[in-house]
Amino acid sequence: MASIVKVGRRRFLQVSGTAGAGLVIGFALPSPLLRAAQAAEEPFTPNAWLSIDPEGQVTIWVAKSEMGQGVLTSLPMIVADELEADWGRVKIQQALADPKYGSMSTGGSASIRRSFTPLREAGAAARMMLVAAAAKAWGVGLSTCRAESGAVVQLASGRRLSYGELAPKAARMEIPKQIQLKNPKEFKLIGKPMHRLDTPEKVNGRARFGMDVEFRGLHVAAVARCPVFGGKIKRFDAAKAKALPGVVKVVEVPTGVAVVAKDTWSAFQGRDALQVEWDEGPAARTDSAGLWAMLHEKAKGEGATARNEGDALAALKAAAKRVQAQYEAPFLAHATMEPMNATVRVEKGGCEIWAPTQAPQWAQGEVARLLGLAPEKVVFHTTLLGGGFGRRAMPDFVVEAAEVARAAGVPVKVAWSREDDMRHDFYRPMSLHLMEGGLDGRGKLTACTHRLVAPSISDQMNPGSVKGVDQAAVDGAANILYAIPNLRVEYVMARTPVPLGWWRSVYASQNAFATECFIDELASAAGRDPVEFRLELLGASSPMHPVVALAAERSGWGKPLPAGRARGVACCECFGTRVAHVAEVSVVKGQAKVHKVTCAVDCGQVVNPDTVRAQVESAVVYGLSALLTGEITIEKGRVKQGNFDDYPVLRMREMPEVEVHMLLGDWESAKLGGMGEPGLPPLAPAVANALFAITGRRIRRLPLKGSGA
Amino acid sequence: MEPIHLTVNGKTRAVEVAPDTPLLWVLRDTLGLKGTKFGCGIAECGACTVLLDGEAIRSCITSVKEAVGHRITTIEGLSAAGGHPLQKAWVSEEVPQCGYCQSGQLMAGAALLAKKPKPTDADIDEAMSGILCRCGTYQRIRRAIHAAAGEVARGQHR
User: Fold this and answer.
1) Domains of chain A
2) What is the mean pLDDT of chain A?
């Protein structure tokens, strides 16, 4: 086992390269055995998160996956700040999958929120041990010493010991039982715009993604999978594939037929040369039209109650004016820029994996079960991810690579083509939303109902696990912040053989589209300005009130625009963060053109402010792609779209100006909110509402390209 | 197989591959230049963009034989140590997020600046719309190109 790890790792380190400024980012870290052999003295390693060697080099391990959101910089900032490390002496390492880090899953916009306190404590505990070691060395009281930028100083005497000098001594100090965190006023890194540490490698071609993994003896495989979900191999003929010069072998695995080749192109060509006959199974009868009909049928029945305030049905009956609307949102693919891939090396008694995954421990556990190994015998390296957006939380592509590597008997990287990636995704569920609202004689919203019909991701993964309401499915619907006296939100589960997954912001993307477009319809029916209507409905004490007000003010809401342009507003709270967008839109030759999006964000507090801004810009673009053109359709049980020609995404020429404004609380009272996802849900309704202001027509079905907008 | 001679980043390299092999896979798998990325295989996403005699091309649909006799430049050859004005601007404007598309973005941007040292927004739209970014870094790319253009125009590079 040790030998596999060594060979694979060394080859890998060679290509992973380094970046300047004393900061090194690598995926592979030396095993404890190797470390001990290399270091003359034991480094000070008080916990799983950091170590300091006698030369003063600080290593910080990052246990979350870097998929663009900046965790390789922001998480170490938290540790280093509490540690009082010299940022220039910090080296970042991607952690191997290990239970000692707790959950390593990257998702739910939770990396900063859930890591903040544990990482502060890890840094602070180490700092306390270093201070204690210095005080002991000098024979002085603890209170006379303080840690400062990589050293402990005694104020009165001016004596100073560097962290490197103190490391061996600190290693012998007791781990503090009570951890003294810094006063946030003394933060030196947290809250400051720090340059991302992974940028230099990402501009010189040295950044290594899963697709770039290479070492001696590594083969590349492409898998022919049944195009129909749930289909199986009936028979196949590999003669033509095997005749190709680069093809090494062809093996059958549970997901299909794998062509193992010397290089990627040969694997793709070999796969194309296979003749496979599939047993398509029952899903072959599934198509989008049938699924929509099924959702509409389901919508006729009452759903499980997700929220019930007052008596919405009675209040609707009593309303002076009633408004009804139905909204539809399609299946969506994730389409990360880097297609799925994973590299696996199986040997007797062990296995080593390199994969761009959001959930290394899950994949590790699945592979361990498959190979009959203890999880710790599966050495798991998380590489850089070329986008995640929820797709890479699923372990399927890693498990499949382990199947191929085992069957082939050689180390294998399974590389997916774009078509593989788009047709074997776990899709954002399609959804249907039945909305009804009632206004009183003065135009005040007295009642609202929302019946959401959608397949459940949770129930598909664990059939029978969802009884009544899927709580995840009603995010952005049941938890709306408007003070509506009579509010009823229902969930109706629909089932589909189409694989479902978490797509950036999960169900909040569909729910906010329906809810926020409908609130706009109600504002129109009441003859009210959409911003004023929302502010009144939220109430002055709502945490969303200042967010909507800020977006409106910064966008110039109410001020004149060039002819043909209009603004639309929408807001949503999800993953602990409140976001409001104002979109400025025009219609050019029948096409929607988004000129500007003004975003207001309340995520409580921030660790790296520019990263927060970047996440909002990113969510706007991702949401805009979905709004304008994003749609996966099913025909005969298979996904019709296959590449960026028939699943187009936003391009430079369509890019609006995005302006991000943050509302920050003080550290004492602010609760940290997530940032990867909350910028997305309000985008589609803000644009749709702006389009209504221009055309007078409501957008009730996504994407725009199919709705004739 | 007859060796095929290529000029990559100023060096002559002999490769033994079928002449219709896409240049992308020769760069990545045969020559180990992993900076050029695979995204779609049909010239829709631009992640595989390299320069052929200074022109931005999609290496996923360019066969290796078409590249013979031309100067091929990949991200690894854009500058000696990340010193191209675009690379510096990419760092100062904090452009990359996941980073997967950025080699293609930089190569397309470099081809643009070589032709138009002071590009307009319309020039940028024209030159850069072929390179997809799912993280949505377009606004920063635009800013970084303008920033780098200022530097090129001031003659700090070349």
Assistant:
1) 18-203 (3.30.365.10), 210-225+232-279+340-415 (3.30.365.10), 288-332+427-707 (3.30.365.10)
2) 93
Question: To 10 degrees, the CA torsion angle through A547, A549, A553, A558?
Answer: 140
Sign of CA dihedral A291, A294, A300, A306: negative
Overall CATH class of domain B4-77: alpha beta
Give the gap in angstroms from C-alpha B85 to the nearest C-alpha of chain A: 11
Residues of chain A in contact with residue B21, where contact means CB-CB under 8 angstroms, are 265
Question: Which percentage of chain A shows pLDDT scores above 70?
Answer: 94
B37 contacts in A (CB within 8 Å)?
A: 209, 211, 337-338, 386
B49 and A CB contact within 8 Å: no
- List the single residue in A with minimal CA-CA distance to B131: A651
Structure tokens at B132: 């997809």
Measure the CA angle with vertex A603, ends A601 and A609; round to 5°: 80
Q: What is the pLDDT of residue B155?
A: 58
Q: Mark out the alpha helices in A557-698 (DSSP H runs).
A: 609-629, 683-695
* Residues ≥6 apart with Cβ < 8 Å to A153: A145, A146, A159, A160
Q: Are B38 and A420 in contact (CB under 8 A)?
A: no
Check pLDDT > 90 for residue A598.
yes
Nearest to B125 among A212, A649, A652 (CB): A652
The angle subtended at Cα B17 by Cα B11 and Cα B20, nearest 5°, is: 105
Residue A129 host element (H or E): helix A111-138
Closest by alpha carbon to A225, among A419, A410, A488, A36? A419
**Residue in B100, B123, B143 to test binding to A, most A beta-carbons within 10 Å:** B100
CATH 1.10.150.120 boundaries in chain B: 85-153
Query: Is the CB of B2 inside 8 Å of chain A's CB atoms?
Result: no
**ipTM of the prediction:** 0.97
Nearest to A152 by CA among A173, A130, A123, A175: A130
Q: Measure the CA–CA gap between A228 and A600, rounded to whole angstroms.
A: 43
- What's the topology of domain B85-153? DNA polymerase; domain 1 (1.10.150)
C-alpha–C-alpha distance, residues A190 and A184, integer Å: 9
Q: Chain B 56-85, CB below 8 Å of chain A: which residues?
A: 74-76, 78-79, 81-82
Cβ partners under 8 Å of residue A255, min gap 6: A223, A225, A396, A400, A403
Question: For the purposes of burial, counting CB atoms within 10 Å of the CB of A449, is it exposed (0-12), middle (13-18) or buried (19 or more)?
Answer: buried
CB count in 10 Å sphere of residue B66: 15
Q: Is A633 helix (H, G, I), strand (E, B) or coil?
A: coil
Q: Which of A15, A203, A265 has its CB closest to that of B29?
A: A265
Half-sphere exposure of A36 (CA within 13 A, CB side): 3
Query: Hey, are the CB atoms on B136 and A245 less than 8 Å from each other?
Result: no
pLDDT at B10: 97
The percentage of chain A sitting over the pLDDT mark of 90, rounded to a whole number, equals: 92
In 3D space, the residue among A394, A403, A446, A441 whose CA is nearest the CA of residue A421 turns out to be A394
Burial A662-695 (b: 16+ CB within 10 A, else e): bbeeeeeebebbbbbbbbbbbbbbbbbbbbbbbe
Where helices occur in A488-638 by DSSP H, the ranges are 508-525, 530-538, 545-555, 609-629
Residue A145 host element (H or E): strand A145-148
Interface test with A, best of B84, B134, B139 (most A CBs within 10 A): B134
| Residues of each domain in chain B carrying CATH 3.10.20.30 | 4-77
DSSP state of A248: E
Distance CA A533, CA A522 (A): 9
- For A440-485, where are the E strands, in sequence order? 445-455
pLDDT, one tens digit per residue, over A345-356 is 999 999 999 999
Task: Give chain A's length.
Answer: 709
